[in-house]
């Protein structure tokens, strides 16, 4: 599904310019920190490694050694986390940017001395041999691919038998007509473009047709991987507030109910079933047999 939106009032020409623009908006300071776009990058990367999101991701890591491929590595925060876990990391990032791309990763690797090699290439044409990696990791990458099916086949090709593929924080829409609403609410699409989202079944089909075995599909409220930077407690408080609006007493009462793990499990399943927010986040864990 192609990105068809032409809404671009600021008309920035690169992702680097878009992120720099975001960092210059005082009202977006919390988002900049939540997205790990703040400097110095080593501090942002270390914060990501220590985050609840990464703690939950690390539960799916097959080992704490071997070769890991970080697809669409951006400024290198996940590459840093993987290297800190013990992997020899190859960071794939086509953007050469010193702020949000390959040069940022190189600087991070040099400063930390971690085992991170940077390769400037796209995910649909991986320049690696078959069966090269124990882990293929992609954070917010699949929805940016120009050919989702081809990219998943490439991930499968370079992964060793028995290896793990993790695709974290992928934007999902319920129907194709929702894409314009997603574009409208995304904080950076309006200034640069480049965003996209797929149906949940389109992600699952692309992964399965590449011959992966899907082990877990994590829903928006089912894992901190997706709802970070909220903590579980903050998430429940936000849900309680939205249910009863401005009634402080009822908010506290609902929050107390949701603190019960059984009540929360029921509420989470209910909310996941009715959640149609354009761009909500899902994550996928799969294995190469």
Describe the structure.
By secondary structure, the protein is α/β, with parallel strands linked by helices. The protein has 14 helices and 8 strands. Strands 1, 2, 3, 4, 5, 6, 7 and 8 form an 8-stranded mixed beta sheet that branches. α7 links the parallel β4 and β5. α3 crosses α5, α7 packs across α10 and α12 packs across α13. The radius of gyration is 19 Å and the shape is globular. The N terminus is likely disordered.
Q: Topology, please?
A:
Blueprint: H1 15-23, H2 29-34, H3 41-49, H4 52-58, E1 67-71, H5 77-85, E2 88-92, H6 102-112, E3 116-119, E4 133-139, H7 148-158, E5 159-173, H8 179-185, H9 189-192, E6 198-199, H10 200-209, E7 213-218, H11 224-227, H12 232-244, H13 248-258, H14 261-274, E8 280-287
Parallel strand pairs: 1-2, 1-4, 2-3, 4-5, 5-6
Antiparallel strand pairs: 5-8, 7-8
């Amino acid at each position: 599904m192609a990105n068809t939106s032409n809404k671009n009032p600021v008309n920035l020409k690169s992702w680097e310019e878009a992120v720099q623009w975001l960092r210059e908006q005082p009202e977006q300071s919390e988002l900049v920190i939540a997205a790990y776009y703040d400097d110095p990058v080593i501090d942002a990367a270390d914060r990501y490694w220590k985050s609840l999101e990464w703690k939950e991701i690390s539960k799916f890591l097959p080992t704490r050694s071997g070769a890991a491929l970080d697809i669409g590595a951006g400024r290198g925060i996940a590459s840093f986390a993987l290297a800190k876990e013990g992997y020899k990391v190859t960071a794939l990032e086509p953007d050469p940017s010193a702020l949000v791309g390959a040069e940022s990763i190189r600087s991070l690797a040099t400063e930390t001395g971690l085992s991170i090699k940077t390769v400037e290439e796209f995910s649909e044409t991986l320049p690696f041999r078959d069966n090269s990696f124990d882990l293929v990791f992609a954070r917010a990458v699949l929805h940016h691919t120009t050919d989702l099916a081809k990219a998943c086949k490439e991930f499968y090709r370079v992964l060793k038998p028995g290896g793990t593929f993790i695709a974290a924080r992928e934007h999902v829409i319920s129907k194709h007509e929702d894409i314009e609403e997603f574009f409208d609410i995304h904080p950076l699409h309006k200034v640069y473009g480049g965003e996209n989202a797929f149906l949940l079944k389109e992600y699952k089909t692309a992964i399965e047709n590449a011959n992966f075995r899907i082990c877990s599909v994590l829903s928006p409220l089912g894992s901190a991987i997706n709802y970070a930077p909220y903590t579980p407690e903050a998430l429940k408080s936000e849900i309680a507030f939205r249910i009863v609006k401005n009634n402080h007493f009822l908010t506290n009462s609902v929050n107390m109910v949701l603190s019960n793990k059984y009540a929360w499990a029921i509420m989470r399943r209910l909310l996941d079933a009715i959640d149609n927010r354009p761009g909500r986040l899902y994550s996928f864990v799969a294995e190469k047999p």
